[in-house]
Write a structure and sequence with these properties.
This protein has 231 residues and is an alpha+beta fold. It folds into 2 domains: 2-60 and 212-228, no CATH class; 69-183, Gcn5-related N-acetyltransferase (GNAT) (Aminopeptidase, 3-Layer(aba) Sandwich). It is 24% helix and 35% strand. The protein has 6 helices and 12 strands. It has helices at residues 46-52, 85-95, 100-103, 107-114, 166-180, 195-204, and strands at 2-7, 12-18, 22-24, 33-37, 56-67, 78-80, 125-129, 132-141, 149-157, 185-191, 207-218, 226-228. The strands form 2 sheets. Strands 1-2-4-11-5-10-9-8-7-6 form a 10-stranded mixed β-sheet, with helices on both faces. It has a two-stranded antiparallel ribbon with strand order 3-12. A hairpin with a 2-residue loop joins strand 7 (125-129) and strand 8 (132-141). Helix 2 (85-95) crosses helix 4 and helix 5 crosses helix 6 (195-204). The longest helix is centred in the last third of the chain and has 15 residues, at 166-180. It is globular and about 50 Å long.
């Protein structure tokens, strides 16, 4: 079965889950491609199965993890939760201005993410320096371990604040709050080619737990938009 959502900013159908068997999905009129990572596409012989329907591996994703210790993290910047998703969306667009076509989304998708009841507002929000917003961070409670686990969904720093250690400060402040709330570990996914994030993760003390391929293919697929996933 295939479940996905249409991202109007990237004109892509983003795979949320895909398991072996008959699959069928409505294709939005403006959708130009289908994309997703190996975590979402749980099928046997993954690369061969994706190639058979026109998807190719174009990138790799890394799953990072960190054990939270209050002694190792400290609140080093001001963070505030912003309940209005329009405010955070405007900042999101500013922080993702250089990668909007691949990682941006429309406001409705952002609103759904920002107001999700799994989001932990105590460790999420907007970072400020000298009263000026410089970035945002968004984490949710782990579905498998709501008390002890956090999964970071997105993070961004405005271009003029990059290279100043502000991203590290924002993560440290968020993880400190997570530790105070009783969380013991956190995870997040990033493209392996994102070297600034890789360096930030190293400074933070996070480690790569697992890597998975990221697939993308143009629509319509060879053979149509529904059928059986090759096993």
């Amino acid at each position: 079965m295939l479940a996905c959502r249409f991202n109007s900013a990237t004109t892509a159908l983003e795979i949320e889950s895909w398991t072996p068997g008959p699959w069928q999905v409505p294709i939005a009129p403006r959708a130009t491609r289908l994309e997703g990572s190996g975590w979402a596409i749980q099928v046997p012989n993954l690369v061969a199965a994706m190639a058979a329907i026109g998807l190719a591996q174009v990138e790799s994703c890394s799953l990072y993890g960190i054990d939270i210790s209050i002694a190792e993290q400290r609140p080093v910047c001001e963070m505030r939760w912003e309940p209005d998703p329009k405010v955070s969306y405007d900042l999101f667009k500013a922080t993702f201005t250089d990668r909007w076509t691949t990682e941006g989304c429309d406001f409705d998708s952002w609103k759904q993410l920002w107001t999700n009841n799994l989001i932990d507002q105590s460790v999420s929000g907007i970072g400020y320096h000298a009263g000026i917003a410089f970035g945002l961070i968004l984490a949710e409670r782990s579905a498998a371990d709501p008390q002890g686990g956090r999964f970071y969904r997105t993070f961004g720093i405005v271009p003029e604040a990059r290279g100043l250690g502000m991203g590290l400060r924002l993560y440290q402040s968020s993880l400190h709050r997570a530790g105070l709330a009783g969380a013991r570990h956190a995870q997040w996914v990033c493209f392996a080619s994102n070297q600034p994030i890789a360096k930030l993760m190293d400074r933070l003390g996070a480690r790569v737990i697992e890597s998975q391929p990221f697939f993308r293919g143009s629509l319509p697929f060879t053979g149509g938009s529904s059928g059986d996933i090759p096993g």
